[in-house]
Each structure stands twice: as structure tokens, then as C-alpha cells.
Amino acid sequence: MTTTPGDPPALPFAGLVDAALELAIAPSWSRAGYQARRFLYRWDDDPPARLDGQVVVLTGFTSGIGRASAHRLGGLGADLHLVGRDLDKVRDVAAELRGDGARVTTSVADLSDLDAVREVADDVTSTHGRVDVLVHNAGALTREWTASPQGIEVTVAAQVYGPFLLTHLLVPLLEAGGGGRVLTVSSGGMYAERLSVDDLEMAPEHYDGVRAYARAKRAQVELTEEWARRAPAAVAFHALHPGWADTPGVVEGLPGFHALARPVLRTPDQGADTLVWLAGAPADQLGPSGGFWLDRHRRPTTKVPWTHTPDGERERLWAWCERRVGLSF
Q1: What is the CATH number of the domain that holds 314?
Q2: Helices (H) then strands (E): counts for the chain
Q3: 41, 161, 191, 213: which is the annotated catalytic residue?
Q4: What pLDDT shows up at residue 203?
Q5: What's the whole-model pTM score?
Q6: Which label site among 71, 217, 248, 284 has the fewest CB atoms less than 10 Å from its CB?
Q7: Cα gap 243→254, rounded to integer Å
């Protein structure tokens, strides 16, 4: 755990309690971890910053953490451009947000379809003169092997290649505002996997949805660091994991875990807290680009030695993504 300039004064021993929670993992990622840190670090004295007039592009907004984030970001004054794949849900949730006073435009797209990603980028570019915050939240745990329209396993297509391409296409708009920010919602499940480009796309006969999801989430975190190294200095990149939240995605993807852990799961709004806070926090409070966050603090990206990223593997992942989406950056 680290503190940064601008943090409100924490209660005595907050750092020690935080470290003990994180070491134990389950208490850290549960509702108890969120509630403890909210109290210890006095988050009520550090509410998320206003986003009046800022353009926020958010994918995967129709349920769970994405929906909670959309409500909170809209309530902070952001101009929302929301991307979802289900037309009816997009329409209904957008109407709900507008009813609460949010300014909303939408695109309907499945982000596993790279052609649809390009259409989303065109929508955003034609509608807005800049993007202040791009949030990659779309993606689900898929139990059965499924191919994208380009023939790519859908978990990797939607959660690695789609966000990579959309970020690339929106970099000019992120630069246009003078200080754009890209936030990626990963998962604590990524701690179980080491980055291996050769194993990222599973074959149908060996497919394991849980491992595919964890590997994609690991790739997201590694790409965040690589974007921070390669992208224009005006654009900052951060990834986060929301802890264990009670969302439709968990119900559908991990029904056994949900049934067992439901009493201690975070609410979607609690899961969205760090994302919303990162969207508007001052740059000096966040520190260098490329961070990985839980509960408003940077966290390490590995917990055991055998998941450390091999030398050169992150660069291999970048090159692989370029080839798969058909561009050179």
C-alpha cells in the first residue's frame, strides 16, 4: 500500500490494517475490506471529484459495476458516451440515466467484433471533440468456447483485442483534452495467472472459461503498463480490480462461488468506487501512469514469484495485439 500527496489524513495504523487485509486476500476483496478502508482512510472526507463537462466513454454499462459507475459518473457531471451490446438494455439504462439528469449518448456494439470497435470509435469521434476518460469495463466470463466474428476466442477478443484497438483509435481524442485517462477494470483473478502470449488464446478442445478470463485480465494489466510506457505523455493509464462484487456477471459465470460468498460480496456501487475515484482524482494523487489499484490505493501486480512476467513477454503481447487487430502503432 502506498499513499500519495493529497490523500486525506488516515487514522492511526491504517496502513498496517490495510496491509494485513491485503495479505489475507479474502477479507481484503470482500465487503469488509471496502468498509474498513472507507473508515480507515476517511473516504467520506475525500469524495470523487466533479467531472463537469468532461467526456467519459464507458463500455459495459448496462449492469453491475458498469451500471453503478454510469450513474455515479453522470451524477458528477460527466458527458457520458456509453457502449453496450444489447440494444434493449442500452436503450433502457440510457433512459434511466437521462431521467436522473445525466447527459448521455450511446453506441450499440459487441466489443469482441473488431469491426464494431472501429464503428464505436467513429461514433465517438464524430460526436465529441475530445475524450477525457476512457473506461474499459465490458467483458464476461464465458463458460463455453465461442468465436468472435473474426474467428478469435471471444474472451480474448472482447477483453484484450477490442480494448487495445479502441484505445489506439481514441488516442488522438484523449490527447486533445490535454490530459486524458484510460482506466481498465481487471479482476483479482488475474493474480492466479502468469502472462504467456502462447497460452492466451485457448483452443476449443482445451477451453476453460475461468482460466481464459483470468489470463485475459492478466493481459489487461500488462498492457496497461505497456501503454504507459509507449503512449503520449498526456495520456495516463491505470488498471484496477473492484474486489468481489455481487453482479449479474458473477451470478452467471461463477454460480457456485456466488452462492457461497454472497453474504460478503460488495455491492456494485462499492465495486465501482475506485473506478469513479480514479476518473477524477488529481494526477499528483495518482502518481506515475501504469498503476494497478484496489480501494483507492496502488497494489502489486503479482503475489507469488511464479506469476512474475517473463522478460520480453509484455513486448510480445503488444506485438501480438497489433497483428491480431491489424495495425501498427
Answers
A1: 3.40.50.720
A2: 15, 8
A3: 213
A4: 95
A5: 0.95
A6: 284
A7: 15
Domain interval for residue 40: 14-325
Tell me the CA end-to-end span of the chain in Å, nearest whole number: 34
pLDDT digits (tens, 9 = 90+) for 73-111: 999 999 999 999 999 999 999 999 999 999 999 999 999
Range list of β-strands (E), 71-212: 79-84, 103-108, 133-136, 181-185
| Total tally of structural domains belonging to the chain | 1
Task: Determine, yes or no, domain membership for 59.
Answer: yes
CB contact set of 23 (below 8 Å; sequence gap of 6+)? none
Is 191 annotated in the active site? no
Residues in the chain predicted with pLDDT less than 50, given as ranges, are 1-3, 5, 329
Q: In 3D, which of 61, 58, 13 has the Cα closest to residue 36?
A: 13
Question: What are the strands of the beta sheet with 103-108, ordered from one edge?
Answer: 103-108, 79-84, 55-59, 133-136, 181-185, 236-240, 291-294, 297-298
